[in-house]
């Protein structure tokens, strides 16, 4: 219902913008970035060929490999260990004010001549939080009781999530600030879109690979069936 409602709102508002919003033809920009789709892709290709851009793209495509598993799998593993999905969803509510405030605070530190310094400083802490998330998953069955999980366990999870948000937004805002700083003003939109797309891809492909590797890398034991492996879903079901 939630997704259906907001999907409908999205479709209605987008349609209204398409039909009701008119371009101001009197105020044309002094220099247009591109003249069409073909020119846009030619421009993107010429940007990508620049050595500095290639190096930077390689950096942001691989920089999130170290914590992709912790980011993508922790919530699923906590649910697997018995933490109710509803409780995990509720724990996300206190994060909303933090997610609003953090970019405002962090932007003060990324506004200088070297915005990526914030990115570099946040990375080791985010990697350490990956180990802390692994500890949370390991700890879950130890503290679980008949009534569920104690309040102090949820408090530790919320605190861990809050610290994770600080490191996540420090890196996110720093990358955005750097992209905005290095983008050529004459082709700012195209340049910025390219760098942001690569940055988003750098966050998504490691998470996809991490999720895909969960089953092959999970060690399972068969209870009551000696000599059999539960490595595959079919074997585990049998």
Tell me what the structure shows.
It is globular, with a radius of gyration of 23 Å. The protein has one domain (46-213). The mean pLDDT is 87. The chain has helices spanning 2-20, 37-48, 51-62, 68-80, 85-91, 95-110, 116-143, 151-182, 188-217, 233-237. Helix content is 73%, strand content 0%. It is mainly α and 238 residues long. The longest helix has 32 residues, at 151-182. The chain contains ten helices and no strands.
Key features of this structure:
238 residues, globular, 10 helices, mainly alpha
Total domains, how many? 1
How many DSSP H or I helices?
A: 10
Q: What is the global morphology?
A: globular
Mean pLDDT: 87
Flag low-confidence runs: none
Head-to-tail CA distance between termini: 36 Å
What is the helical fraction, as a range of percent?
A: over 70%
Strand content: under 5%
Instruction: Kindly provide the radius of gyration, computed on alpha-carbon positions and rounded to a whole number of angstroms.
Output: 23 Å
Kindly name the structural category.
Answer: mainly alpha
* Count of extended strands: 0
The major sheet is characterized as: none
Give helix and strand order, one letter per element, not per position.
Answer: HHHHHHHHHH
């Amino acid at each position: 219902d939630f997704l259906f409602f907001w999907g409908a709102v999205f479709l209605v508002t987008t349609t209204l913008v398409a039909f009701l919003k008119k371009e101001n033809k009197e105020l044309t920009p002094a220099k247009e970035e591109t003249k069409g789709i073909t020119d846009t892709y030619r421009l993107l290709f010429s940007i990508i060929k620049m050595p500095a851009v290639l190096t930077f793209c390689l950096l942001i495509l691989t920089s999130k490999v170290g914590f992709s598993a912790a980011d993508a799998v922790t919530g699923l593993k906590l649910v697997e260990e018995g933490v109710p999905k509803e409780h995990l969803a509720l724990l996300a509510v206190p994060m909303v004010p933090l997610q609003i405030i953090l970019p405002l605070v962090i932007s003060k530190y990324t506004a200088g001549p070297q915005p990526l310094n914030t990115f570099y400083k946040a990375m080791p802490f985010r990697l350490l939080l990956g180990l802390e998330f692994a500890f949370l998953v390991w700890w879950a069955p130890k503290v679980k009781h008949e009534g569920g999980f104690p309040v102090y366990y949820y408090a530790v999870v919320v605190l861990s999530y809050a610290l994770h948000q600080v490191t996540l937004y420090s890196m996110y805002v720093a990358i955005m600030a750097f992209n905005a700083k290095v983008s050529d003003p004459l082709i700012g939109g195209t340049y910025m879109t390219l760098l942001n797309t690569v940055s988003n891809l750098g966050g998504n492909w490691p998470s996809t690979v991490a999720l895909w590797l969960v089953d092959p890398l999970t060690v399972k034991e068969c209870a009551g069936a000696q000599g059999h492996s539960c490595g595959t879903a079919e074997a585990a079901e049998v």
